[in-house]
Amino acid sequence: MEQDFIREAAERLVQLAVTFQNDGPRFSQAQLEYKQADPQPHEAVQRLVTALTAGDRSLEELGESLLAVRAIDEALHEESGIRAPRHARRVMFGGQAYYLHRRLCPTRRKQADRIETYLRHHRVFPEQICGYRIRIARADRLFQQQLRERDAGALKVAIAHFNDAALVETESVRGGFVAKGLSQPAARQAALDNLLDRARTERVNILVLPELTVTPELRDGLKRRLERHAHPDLVAVLAGSFHELDQGKLWNRAVLLNGIGEPVHVHDKFTRFGDDDDPLGIEMIATGDTIPLLSTSLGLVATPICKDFMHEGVQIAQLWKEVGADWFLVCSMSNAKTMRGHRARAGEMSRTHGSMCAVANQVDPDDPMPGFILGTDENHCDLDYLAVDVAWSGNG
Amino acid sequence: MLDLEQASAEYLAGSASLDDILEAVRGSPRLTEYVAEQLDYAYLDRSIRLIRRSAPPEELQALSDHLAHVAHSTRRSLFEGLPQQYFERWRTLKELLDHRLESLATGIPEGLLNRPHVFPIIQKLWRGPIPQSALAAELDLKKANLSRILGVMEASELIDKTPRGLENIISLGPRAPPAPPPPEREPAARPARKMPRFGAVFANF
Predict the structure, then answer these.
(1) CB of A261 within 8 Å of any CB in chain B?
(2) Structure ipTM
């Protein structure tokens, strides 16, 4: 009986959420009806939840209203129990697959024009957006616990770029290039150590490093160092990215490490760099079709690499618009023109979803424009390093 | 420093501190089969004890953090050549503890406690475990209805169901609100004691 209710409620919730997400005028009208239906929506929701869970009213009887969305969302949360696995539930609707994902903590959104205001305990995602498959992983407990302990309303996020003598060594292959290594790995190692010490001293919580700056070997060293000398404040390090071989293919891979250096999230770049005017040619990497997202107490975290985030193509714009992650930790290697693209996308995500974007950029010496952090205010990284307190509201 | 080759499984499971074990593991170039077996017993034993006695989150967290360090991805080479998949086993054990911690960190849905019959059931259980049929009779609820309410309460760990014969015995779960302390009794009025009459002593010196 309970399992039937949970399955039916999940299906109904997805149907309603998708209907409202895809039909602007209807959603707009429903917002008015929600406000007018009851002066105390919270109490009305509780009454509906009681009726639903006692079997006095069926899911269909609730109709297609935002009050119904809130009631089903709440009832599903209560019925699922606290031990319910947080994996996504796959639901078919209108010939398309959607994921219903339970949030780690309820959203605190209050704006009437956001579906999250009514869908407090769950998220609804299409399984595929513009051909990309969305995959949501749970952050491991250590990551979540450390973030929960920082509930004072602000996290310190730092971005950096390297101003050392280590340059990316590339190799030409069939009209394109691959990154083979760094010219002076020892110099980069020293810079990395200094950066980590500085981040610890300044009690940074999340550190983001730029694209093509940390080789897999340097990352392994970073993992060992974090494991040996974990600092309670340093929650996560996005350890830059580099070209690396895995299962016979070359990927541009960014790895998010937790406070003790354990990988919690891996992102493989899915949009190649390539410019006809650029003597290097195309970045000869494999590109996948999966967009990995990390569900944490902070909300949904995405770690796109450079063009994955700023590319102006329709697919990428549509992808991030629909995903609407709460946090974008971006590693980039860009010139001024590309950085303007990053700023535009970050601004768009901040306006439409309230996302926090931290873009660490390894600057082009000929056309330098450093990274930035866009939270409540825009902060530009004028030096090699910038640490900013970013307000967050735990929209897990 | 703790010598893992000499330490017994019982000592590692009971008396040894997790910090000492971690330090010893860090100092080992590789784990021998004997040491891995002893540690495996110790970790399983510690985990079972913590979960059985509904240990506070800090204790679960300490063991989970310890396992995260011991079975860290940078330490995988330590486990090479061992006959059992200890690396994966300990990581799975850590996952189990993390899952338990996550459940403990999840608040009981507010609306659940306000649902009809939920709080009265908890109040009855404050007095002690009750058979499910007796609870149905006391609350005047249909069998199916009570079963459904208890199912939701059990999912949120407000109650525990223990099968006994054909019956379920219902008791308070680890996440049930605690019974309020009994009201303090007014101290009984003391019977008036006859006080000897002390006369004032005026001394004329």
Answers:
(1) yes
(2) 0.79
